[in-house]
């Protein structure tokens, strides 16, 4: 298609704005994390630190007292612990969600049974219920089940909240899969579940990878539910821990920014790795 | 290895009242290649899928090797199937694709290896065993699908339009290859196609299906020479038989047929060739004329306008409008290139009255299927 120079100019400007909009906060976070508290508070603003320092990262990883860092107290090892919690919850939650959702999507998409349409509608319908509506009931259930402040409790909740979307996305994929490879497997001696595991799931691998990425990123970024259901480092994820670096009277912005930057790294790596894998598989699937 | 595939009064109703297959009975003999052919939607694929166990049978019995399998799941039927789109396992190599069924049967690994290597050699896949399906051409994928079926050494083969995704040249090549492999394996084979050329060239016998009902079952020559009704007559043969309304008239001692604006006297022995014909004198019938039966010496002449000519190189396909015909019928004729027709002009073409086919004007049934010598 031939486009006029004016159109191209508008497009270029739009792209620059979008990139600035998404990358700007990250760049700001990185520069802030490398600055000193004094420099951050300076007027006029120093956008680029004159003496870059990793002090904020050291304080975050090794611990610091409020005195040396101006209002923010960090406990050595807490941050890494919270990152580990986040990873375990996100990976565990995503793995369980995918097992549930893949099977549900197959059942809803392939096996015709009464009310399968209604089940799907109900499932997708839960997506519009805001989490705030159920938090009180959820807290009570979790308290009764003695799952407050446990990673497995959080994982269970996330499996419940993430499954509908995952099921729906995978359902659309199941509907588009050709039937024949599965039928060939049935003729080749498989029971239905064997055909599902050995032939259908591999056929769905690109979709499963994409949904896995979505779920892991989504759980990694969860804040309200873990804030509500955790109280100690036993299960506290990094999103909740970071908020505690906001001091009562003053806040050490470099430490806050360093925590944000570090919390960004795992999901960024995951997105990059799976992005390649997803596009690769999509290209080779037909 | 020898076995049979038997269908006894097999019927399939789909929800919503559609009868896909109606009271279908046929038997594939040991080692036989039987082709199930018909237009799309005639129920041939449904019939095949019922034999495979992929579709439930509403009523009737299916036997494979004299064992009733009607209610058995596909894995317990000892069959192999080749699908139209090959249905290869995209995430497995060619070797794994072919070995999959044997692995499911828990066959010892050396035996699996031996069988896969043997089948690969037979199909010329030896160099491709470590490739993935997406790295193969259509013909190669088709061979892998065949290989996956034959390594199983099943009691019966089922094939669902296995050639329709291939280009014309490859299709002709693979026809021969499938027949060669099937002869070697000698398992009864039920082959579904909508392509009558495939049916005629590949089948030991051909079963023609229409709207779920078996029309005729016979050798390719049988169904070509002695179609039981106008549908079979029109379906078998390419280009299709011309089916034209006509009236039977008395001509001296014999009969004549008024067709396409002409009057064709039938040969004196018409009464014995078509015993049912005489009693229909004065009544409408449908006359069938095969395109290849035009232009023969000493035939009856028809006056036609030459509407269109298509040269196939070796011969000529002519679309002719009989001058006397009221309803603008078009006849198709296969003629020698030297027939001397010119597009847009009027010409005389002959048709051999001995090679006419007669059908009831209402039911379409053949009027006294002609005796074997035709």
Structural account:
The complex is a heterodimer of chains A (286) and B (374). The mean pLDDT of chain A is 85. Chain A has helices at 5-33, 37-41, 55-62, 66-69, 78-110, 116-125, 131-144, 151-176, 180-187, 192-203, 205-220, 224-229, 238-243, 253-284. Chain A is mainly α and 286 residues long. Chain B has 374 residues and is an alpha+beta fold. The longest helix of chain B is centred in the middle third of the chain and has 18 residues, at 168-185. The chains are: A mainly alpha (286), B alpha+beta (374). The A-B interface holds A 178, 180-181, 183-191, 194, 198-199, 202-203, 205, 284-286 and B 52-54, 73-75, 77, 79-81, 83-91, 100-101, 104-105, 134, 148, 152.
Briefly say what this structure is.
The complex is a heterodimer of chains A (286) and B (374). By secondary structure, chain A is mainly alpha-helical.
Give the structural class of chain B: alpha+beta
Number of domains of chain A: 2
* Main CATH class of the largest domain in chain A: Mainly Alpha
Rg value of chain A: 24 Å
| Strand content bin of chain B | 25-35%
Oligomeric nature of the chains: heterodimer
The class by helix and strand makeup of chain A works out as: mainly alpha
The profile of the biggest β sheet of chain A is: none
Which blocks of ≥5 consecutive residues of chain A have pLDDT under 50?
none
State the end-to-end CA separation of chain B: 37 Å
Integer average pLDDT of chain B? 89
As residue ranges, the low-confidence spans of chain B are none
Globular, elongated, flat, extended or rod-shaped: what is the shape of chain B? Answer: elongated
| Backbone shape of chain A | globular
Amount of helix of chain B? 10-25%
Query: Largest beta sheet of chain B: what is the strand line-up?
Result: 6-7-8-3-9-10
Q: Could you name the CATH topology of the largest domain in chain A?
A: MetI-like fold
Rg of chain B, nearest Å: 24 Å
């Amino acid at each position: 298609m031939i486009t006029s120079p004016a159109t191209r100019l508008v497009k270029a400007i739009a792209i620059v704005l979008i990139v600035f909009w998404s990358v700007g906060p990250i760049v700001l976070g990185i520069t802030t994390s490398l600055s000193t508290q004094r420099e951050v508070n300076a007027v006029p603003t120093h956008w680029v630190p004159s003496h870059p320092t990793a002090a904020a990262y050291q304080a975050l990883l090794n611990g610091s007292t409020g005195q040396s860092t101006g209002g923010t107290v960090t406990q050595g090892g807490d941050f890494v612990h919270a990152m580990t919690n986040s990873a375990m919850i996100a990976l565990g939650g995503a793995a369980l969600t995918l097992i549930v959702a893949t099977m549900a999507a197959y059942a809803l998409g392939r096996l015709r049974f009464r009310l399968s349409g209604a089940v799907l509608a109900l499932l997708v319908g839960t997506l519009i219920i805001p989490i705030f509506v159920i938090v009180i009931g959820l807290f009570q259930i979790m308290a009764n089940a003695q799952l407050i402040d446990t990673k497995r409790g959080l994982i269970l909740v996330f499996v419940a909240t993430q499954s509908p979307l995952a099921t729906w996305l995978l359902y659309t994929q199941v509907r588009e899969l050709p039937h024949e490879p599965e039928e060939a497997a049935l003729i080749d001696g498989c029971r239905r579940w064997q055909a599902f595991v050995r032939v259908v799931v591999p056929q769905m691998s690109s979709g499963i990878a994409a949904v896995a990425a979505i779920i892991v990123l989504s759980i990694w970024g969860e804040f309200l539910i873990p804030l509500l259901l955790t109280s100690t480092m036993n299960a506290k994820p990094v999103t909740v821990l970071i908020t505690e670096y906001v001091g009562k009277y003053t806040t050490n912005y470099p430490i806050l920014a360093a925590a944000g930057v570090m919390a960004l790294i795992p999901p960024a790596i995951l997105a990059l790795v799976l992005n390649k894998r997803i596009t690769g598989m999509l290209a080779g699937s037909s | 290895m020898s076995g049979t595939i038997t269908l006894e009064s097999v019927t399939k109703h789909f929800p919503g009242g559609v009868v896909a297959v109606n009271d279908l009975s046929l038997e594939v003999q040991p080692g036989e290649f039987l082709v199930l052919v018909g237009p799309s939607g005639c129920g041939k694929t449904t019939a095949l899928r019922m034999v495979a166990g992929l579709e439930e049978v509403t009523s009737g019995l299916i036997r494979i090797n004299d064992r009733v399998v009607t209610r058995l799941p596909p894995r317990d039927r000892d069959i192999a199937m080749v699908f139209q789109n090959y249905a290869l396992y995209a995430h497995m190599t060619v070797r794994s694709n072919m070995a999959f069924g044997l692995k499911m049967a828990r066959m010892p690994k050396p035996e699996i290896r031996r069988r896969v290597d043997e089948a690969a050699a037979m199909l010329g896949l030896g160099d491709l065993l470590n490739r993935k399906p997406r790295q193969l051409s259509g013909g190669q994928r088709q061979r892998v699908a065949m290989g996956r079926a034959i390594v199983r050494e099943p009691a019966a083969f089922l094939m669902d339009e296995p050639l329709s995704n291939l280009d014309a040249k490859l299709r002709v090549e693979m026809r021969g290859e499938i027949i060669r492999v099937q002869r070697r394996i000698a398992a009864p084979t039920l082959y579904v196609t909508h392509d009558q050329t495939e049916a005629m060239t590949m089948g030991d016998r051909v079963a023609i299906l229409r709207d779920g009902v078996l029309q005729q079952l016979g050798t390719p020559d049988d169904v070509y020479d002695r179609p039981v009704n106008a549908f079979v007559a029109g379906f078998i043969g390419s280009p299709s038989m011309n089916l034209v309304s006509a009236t039977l008239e008395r001509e001296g001692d014999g009969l004549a047929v008024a067709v396409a604006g002409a009057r064709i006297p039938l040969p004196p022995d018409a009464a014995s060739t078509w015993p049912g014909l005489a009693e229909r004198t004065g009544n409408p019938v449908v006359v069938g004329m095969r395109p290849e039966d035009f232009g023969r010496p000493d035939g009856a002449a028809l006056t036609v306008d030459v509407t269109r000519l298509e040269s196939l190189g070796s011969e000529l396909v002519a679309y002719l409008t009989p001058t006397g015909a009221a309803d603008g019928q078009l006849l198709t004729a296969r003629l020698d290139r030297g027939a001397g027709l010119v597009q847009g002009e009027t010409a005389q073409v002959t048709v051999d009255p001995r090679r006419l086919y007669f059908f009831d004007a209402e039911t379409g049934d053949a009027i006294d299927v002609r005796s074997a010598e035709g």
